[in-house]
Amino acid sequence: MTQTNTGQGPTQADAVATTAEDPIYGGRLGELESELASLIQRIDRLRAELRDSRGEDPVVHCLGRVKTPQSIREKCLRKGLEPSAESAFAHVRDIIGVRVVCAFLSDVYLMRDAIARLPEAEVVGEKDYIRHVKPNGYRSYHLLLRLESGLFTEVQVRTVSMDTWASLEHQLKYKRDLDGDLRLITSELKRCADELASTDLSMQAIRDMIRGERAAGGEGR
User: Fold this and answer.
1) What is the span of the domain harbouring residue 46?
2) Which whole-number Å values give the CA distances from 13 to 69, 133, 146, in the listed order?
3) Long-range contact pairs involving 71-79 (C-beta distance under 8 Å, separation at least 24)
4) pTM of this prediction?
5) 205: pLDDT strictly greater than 90
6) Would you say residue 127 lies in a domain?
7) What is the pLDDT of residues 63-81, one digit of tens each?
8) Average pLDDT of every residue of the chain
């Protein structure tokens, strides 16, 4: 798997790790890595432009990854498909994934709009799980992009608190020995998700007051 992480600096990219080529990539791992790095560079440029025009970077950090061979095969099987490179590139739309983490709700939508305007990418789908929260409490904004190469990528934009919650919920998915604790943990996670959402709204309101701005209607916009 390739991971690329950018911190608060607007043009930093760091390739962390790369696995050996796997047949599920169909000989295109290098292409996937290149497209991922290119997309993150474009997002970094957006951050730099917004920082220059607004006086601050709207993004805390940005992380990209190429889906692991195991994850690609599992997703193919869940879709009832043969776990092959052909199936993966035709039906798995998040082989390339990018996560953009912001401090404030308004910045989530600011980055959503900026990414949607990228001339090198076309928005072919999006889901607002901030306004339309998943039953388990998951919140994030998802954009499905088709790049100029024809490859697809999913970009998730969320706040720091949403990202922390999603990371913990992801760990829960892979715990098989919780038994009776599972219901309690799931309930507590949902409660925490709601409390974090309330905190995000409060922090946004405080920020708007500090700036002397009147908060726009809707959650985080």
Assistant:
1) 3-165
2) 23, 31, 22
3) 72/24, 73/24
4) 0.85
5) yes
6) yes
7) 999 999 999 999 999 999 9
8) 89
